[in-house]
Amino acid sequence: MSDGSLWVLVAGTCAGCYLLKIIGYVLPPRVLDRPAVRRAVSLLPVALLAALVVVELLAAGSSYDIDAARIAGFAAGAVAVWRRAPFLVVIVLAAVVAAALRVVP
Q1: Is pLDDT at 1 greater than 70 in this prediction?
Q2: Has this prediction a pTM greater than 0.70?
């Protein structure tokens, strides 16, 4: 990818983000007050966060990387979240499990 096409891509992304933000101000309130729209808007952050977690869990660069230690750390963190552990405990537990599995050959 040349520098020129990269800048066109960056400018296009900026314009798209700006237009998306403007649409939120331009849409009439009656469109945003519909129950289906409210439900979709409330669930959208959860779906985006889940997608980011899956990408970080299973990808390394531009390829898939199934790392047992990373998956086990994620699983330990998921169980801690399910058990309603504090956020710091979730992070430390996931890191300790992943690190322990990387140390053990």
Answers
A1: no
A2: no
Instruction: Write out the two tokens for 90.
Output: 């979730």
Q: Determine the Cα angle at 18 with ends 12 and 36, to 5°.
A: 115
Paired tokens of 79: 């169980």
Q: Where are the domains of the chain?
A: 1-33
The angle at the Cα of 80, spanning 40 to 98, to the nearest 5 degrees, equals 110
Asked if 77 and 93 touch (Cβ cutoff 8 Å), the reply is yes
98: amino acid identity, one letter: A
Partners of 59 in the beta sheet?
64
Among left, alpha and beta (phi > 0; psi -120 to 50; other), residue 103 is alpha
pLDDT higher than threshold 90 for residue 100: yes
Closest CA to 98 of 75, 65, 64, 78: 75
